[in-house]
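ok trying again, last paste got cut off:
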Amino acid sequence: MKICEVCGLPKELCVCEEIAREIQRVKVYTVRRRFGKIMTIIEGINEQEIDIKELTKTLKAKCACGGTAKKGRIELQGDHKKKVKKVLVELGFSPDTIEIR
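nice, full thing came through this time. structure:
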């Protein structure tokens, strides 16, 4: 059985990730890439507190698009700003801390 170093609870009962999700300042915006393609960028997620690879996988599945996690930010193919906010709120992020530009 693994114990969390931060809260001291077993990994199954650990609440560190839920607390971290509520205090993150997340920015969601779009940029135009090569050949006029639109990319949705999600920044401000702390990689040490939240599993960014697992979050990317979930967002890609919910938005039905391709994407990647690079340099502490998530890049999704296409314009998914509103859908990303809805999915992040479902995953436990606070809607007040998600900024859409």
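cool. The radius of gyration is 15 Å. The longest helix spans residues 52-63.
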